[in-house]
Amino acid sequence: MVFFGLVFVFKALRLGMIGKGLPFNSQAISFFEYPSAFARLSSVFSSFSSRDELSSRCSTEPGIYSVDNCGFHNAHHEYNRFRKMGPEVSGNRSVFECPEDESGDNQGSNFGDEEVEESDSSDDEGGDISDGDDDFMMLNSFNRNGEEKDVSRVERDEEEFRHPLVREISRLIEFRSAWNPKLEGELRRLLKSLNPRQVSAVLRFQSDERVALKFFYWADRQWRYRHDPIVYYAMLEVLSKTKLCQGAKRVLRLMARRGIERCPEAFGHVMVSYSRAGKLRNAMRVLTLMQKSGVEPNLSICNTAVHVLVMGNKLEKALRFVERMQIVGIRPNVITYNCLIKGYCDVHRIEDAMELIAEMPFKGCSPDKVSFYTVMHFLCKQKRIKEVRKLMEKMKDRGLLPDQVTYINLIHMLSKHGHGNEALEFLREAEGRGFRIDKVGYSAIVQSFCKEGRIDMAKEIVSEMFSKGCTPDVVTYTTVLDGFCRLGQMDQAKKMLHQMYKHGCKPNTTSYTALLNGLCRSGNSMEARKMMDMSEEEWWTPNAITYSAVMHGLRREGKLGDACNLVREMVQKGFFPTPVDLNLLIQSLCQEEKMDEAKRFTEWCLNKGCAVNVVNFTTLIHGYCRKDDLEAALLLLDDMFLINKHPDAVTYTTVINALGRKGRIEEATELTMKMLGKGLDPTPVTYRTIIHWYCQMGRVDDLLKLLEKMLSRKMHRTAYNQVVEKLCDLGNPEEAEKLLGKVLRTASRIDANTCHVLMDSYLSKGFPLSAYRVASRMFNRNLIPNLKLCEKVSKRLMLEGSSKEADNLMLRFVERGCLSA
Q1: Were both Cys, which of 81, 272, 406, 660 would link to 240 (CB 3.0–4.6 Å)?
Q2: Which residues form the signal peptide (predicted)?
Q3: From the centroid of its chain, how far is CA 170?
């Protein structure tokens, strides 16, 4: 008994080392030298084609993972050696922590603080894919004689989603912010009662994929529980719909550590996640990782690679990949070709896409409806309706008769791109063939006509819907109502609202918002305000868009007090205006010189938690500057630092301009240096403002010193050009010529225009010799002056007796080939 007790203690200590994160197995497995992934492309087209392209999958039950064929049950003999202990032996570890990595360091934290998406230095963050064919090498491992092993996707049974245990666990997860040991124990107890498909349903039930990943990690650590292989695939499938590529990679690595055989689908899900994250190079390197893991490629993973390349605008590489597939014996199917067709359409190579459709039968793969739909979609965008009809005829020749789905898709595509007449023609054709178009198709045509301003046609379509027993819904009515409002026909819009009630269609918030917006645009904002006050009696609730529309209507009509009161009511109802809405209202108050009211309103919004930003304060400061209340503007500028609203370059430029206008140039200089000290780059407006006031006050030397400091912060190509031109405008060309050397350093077209301004300034002051001197300097810098301007200079030189300089100036043009001898 003592011996067995010692053995038990030894095992407990050894398991305890694992639970505390200490390494148990000395052999480290090196995974993910390259990123990974996969996407099942057939699911993308499942809504269009009834063809089962993956009928050769090796599942024993339709839609269920074939765990026996993949050897999952035989791979779990080492599983318990890697189990993490439960809370009984793992100390104060919080619920939903991340699993430990190979080194034993705990990567998790509390549920609310955990960062699921981790950085990985081994990943290349570049989104580009090299032009080489290194990613094609994995195709060489394809076994032409061997059978293709595949894992089917877990069937999504709706009964599992409605199971009481699934819903209860999901409810407990929603209260994760208030976790305590009792709730965690309850969750742990419920977890042991779930079967693998129910655990998968819990993962899919979560609206936030990060929460699903945290629950997956937490469940993986529980005592006497282990994830079934289908749970790993369900987790990967959930992550494949997100950009959480690092989380998907960790799940794939965890499968290897647990000894679970990974089929191509596992790598494919990670591939899709990398592609969604924009890491296309990493997505393609999954193929190399799969080859190193000893997993043979199949058609599904190849289709995923083609899809990723097409989505990454690498059509040429996708075409080479398909060629390599055929060389090694992987025969492309209709999904492969549909990906290439979409790639052709994305780069506007519609003719090549249609040619590929024509060649598909000769390659042993007939096109399906998706092939034609893809091309039709892009033809509708380019308003090539005749070619759409020709393509429909080709579909009929292929034995693909247009069905109701075909017509509905065409109607929606044409209506979306503003071809209401053509969409109506297809609707008539569909009904002539006995197909019934639902209210959604009619609504699309109605919306297209309303956008074009053809309200009469939209009303006729609505009347036709009634005659055919297709009752319009609230979306259709609201579309027509909004069309009347856009045209300013408010009486018709109100009649449409009453007609909705008459036909038993209750208007919703969107309907009333469209009507109120129309009233405000027609100058009846007070009527809109009264209708909003009656919303409770009409059984509808205004939303943030409703409040914003009425607020802007009151603002445009000058009813600023009512607009501010509406914003206060809006905030009390739990709706917060956007910074743009606030800025327009503050700007209107400033234009009315109601600065105190504008400041109080801004402070109230800030205290109530509204998104008041730097732009709003800049508008307020600009209002004070326009009112010549610089002290209030400077005080508000200092107050911004106290409330952690740091001014930007526009804010500083506004105050600098006001100081310059008042002649307080020293304070403007000090504020400019303060802006540079804060690390803010001056904008082009900042340069123009400073140059204008310094030149106007004749302080050119001080200006040049300040410009050197500003240019050291950020180069501005035309700074000295602006100085020269401003001095010329102020009638001081002599001072401007001193800076001509700085202007002619680059000898660009902009510099030539500046020299022309200087020459014209000298001519206007009666100094043609100075203008001649500027033109000569331009020739020396290989700049050709304006010929007409130089002719004026030459004539003035001749009148003053400087014929030698006049002849010399024209001779320079002859030497450059601009004039004949």
Answers
A1: 272
A2: 1-23
A3: 30
Domain extent listing, the chain: 510-575
| Residue among 234, 293, 327 nearest 302 (CA) | 327
Determine the Cα–Cα distance for residues 133 and 323; give it in Å rounded to an integer. 12
Q: Dihedrals φ, ψ of 106, to 5°?
A: -75, 120
Q: Which residue has the higher pLDDT, 370 or 4?
A: 370
Considering the chain, what is the average pLDDT of its residues?
79
Tokens matching residue 617: 């304060």
% pLDDT > 90, the chain: 26
Instruction: Calculate ∠ Cα 527-529-532, nearest 5°.
Output: 110
Write down the H helix ranges in 487-578. 490-502, 509-521, 525-533, 544-556, 560-572
Whole-number Å distance between alpha carbons of 37 and 138: 14
- Classify each residue of 247-279 as buried b or exposed e, where b means 16 or more C-beta atoms within 10 Å of its C-beta: bbbbbbbbbebbbbbbbbbbbbbbbbbbbbbeb
Report the pLDDT value the prediction gives residue 12, as an integer from 0 to 100.
Answer: 40
Distance CA(697)–CA(728), nearest Å, equals 14
CA 349, 351, 355: angle at the middle one, nearest 5?
120
Round to whole Å and give the CA distance between 817 and 542.
Answer: 73
Beta carbons of 7 and 275 less than 8 angstroms apart: no
Q: Are 332 and 365 a contacting pair, CB within 8 Å?
A: yes
Q: Looking at this protein, which amino acid is placed at residue 766? A: G
The residues near 536 (Cβ < 8 Å, ≥ 6 apart) are none
- Distance, CA of 516 to CA of 511 (rounded, Å): 9
Nearest to 695, CA basis, from 726, 663, 664, 716: 726
- Report how far residue 335's alpha carbon sits from residue 157's, in angstroms, rounded to the nearest whole number: 26
H-helix segments, 72-154: 87-90
Residues found in the chain = 821
In 3D, which of 305, 377, 299 has the Cα closest to residue 342? Answer: 377
Nearest by Cα to 173 from 148, 193, 203, 130 = 203
> Rounded distance, CA 652 to CA 720, Å?
21
Q: What is the mean pLDDT of residues 479-504?
A: 88
Distance CA 463, CA 471 (A): 9
Q: How far is CA 7 from CA 224, 342, 806, in A?
A: 20, 64, 112
- pLDDT tens per residue across span 86-123: 333 333 334 444 444 433 333 333 444 444 444 443 44
HEC secondary structure over 706-736: HHHHHHHHCCCCCHHHHHHHHHHHCCCHHHH
Q: What token pair was written down for 372?
A: 């034609």
**3-state percent helix, strand, coil for the chain, nearest multiple of 5:** 65, 0, 35
- The CB density around residue 161, as the number of other CB atoms within 10 Å, is 15
- 3-class SS letters over 569-622: HHHHCCCCCCHHHHHHHHHHHHHCCCHHHHHHHHHHHHHCCCCCCHHHHHHHHH
CA distance 21 to 90: 9
- The one-letter code for the residue type at 346 is D
Tokens of 584: 């327009």
**What is the C-alpha separation between 268 and 245, in angstroms, rounded?**
12
Three-point CA angle 80, 81, 83, nearest 5°: 60
CA dist., res. 564 & res. 569, Å (int)? 9
> Given a cut of 80, is residue 60 above it in pLDDT?
no
